Amino acid sequence: MGHIGTYVPIDISADVLHATAIDLRHRYPFLSVEPVVGDFLNPARLPERLSSVPKTGFFPRSTLGNVSPDDAQHLLSRVLAWPNVDAFVLGVDLIKDPCVLVQAYDDRAGVTAKFISDILVRLNTELNATFDLSGFTYEAKWNAALARIEMALISTGSQAAMLGDQAISFQAGERVAISQSRKYTAETLGDLANAARWRIGEWITDTENQLSVVVSRPRQGRNT
């Protein structure tokens, strides 16, 4: 891919972003790396000198599923507004057997459960909250109507916690929604792309049709 002259990574963590940029410059000396600190859910200001250069957006893995459909459409629309953007490469997780999906988000090693439960740790350590970590269990379930995995913490009994000066009470069995991950089909992703004035150019999947990498192109008349 020697035709690529500049890579512009965008991330909310400045320290990680700049450390990664230094590493990439060392490993790919022919490549100009110009990091931009920002939240991908908000407009990103690209380096001015690149305004006339053809661009390809790249949003890997399946992070698109972690945002709401509206936010996903807004993201695609913002990328389309970049000057001289030619393509947008997306990674998406596809709908599959619900048992496979649930097991992926409720693994036997408990990695995801710990990751989700860490939100309470952060609230306690960073905001001086008083959540009892032993008072919640983790649950991942498939919502077929909304085509998404929903991750939540379930209160194991009646309890209360302080967050700032507010007391928050929980009943036994009460769910605290933490995260979600939407899954796509060729049709639903095509609808999303079309609403944001993209068209799907290439649809590439693995042999088991579990994941897809999609190359989308701006639709004709995209500004009308």
Concise description?
This protein is an alpha/beta fold.
Total domain count: 2
Euclidean distance between termini CA atoms:
33 Å
Strand share of the residues? 25-35%
The number of distinct helices, counting runs of at least 4 residues, comes to 5
Query: Per the principal axes of the C-alpha atoms, what is the gross shape?
Result: globular
Please identify, by name, the CATH architecture of the largest domain.
Answer: 3-Layer(aba) Sandwich
Number of E strands? 13
Radius of gyration: 21 Å
Q: Characterize the largest beta sheet: strand count, sense, and whether it forms a barrel.
A: 4 strands, mixed
Quote the CATH topology of the largest domain: Rossmann fold
Annotated CATH homologous superfamily of the largest domain: Vaccinia Virus protein VP39
Q: Look at the structure and give the mean pLDDT.
A: 93
Give, in spatial order, the strands making up the sheet with the most strands.
5-6-13-12
**SS-derived structural category:** alpha/beta
Features:
Rossmann fold; 13 strands; 224 residues; alpha/beta; four-stranded mixed sheet; three-stranded antiparallel sheet
Describe the protein in words:
This protein has helices at 14-27, 69-80, 98-105, 111-127, 186-195, and strands spanning 6-7, 10-11, 32-33, 36-37, 55-59, 85-93, 136-143, 148-155, 159-163, 166-170, 175-182, 198-205, 211-218. Strand 7 and strand 8 form a beta hairpin. The chain is globular and about 60 Å long. The strands form 5 sheets. It has a 4-stranded mixed sheet. The chain has a 3-stranded antiparallel sheet with strand order 7-8-11, with helices on one face. It folds into 2 domains: 6-96 and 183-218, Rossmann fold; 103-181, no CATH class. The longest helix is centred in the middle third of the chain and has 17 residues, at 111-127. The protein has 224 residues and is α/β, with parallel strands linked by helices.
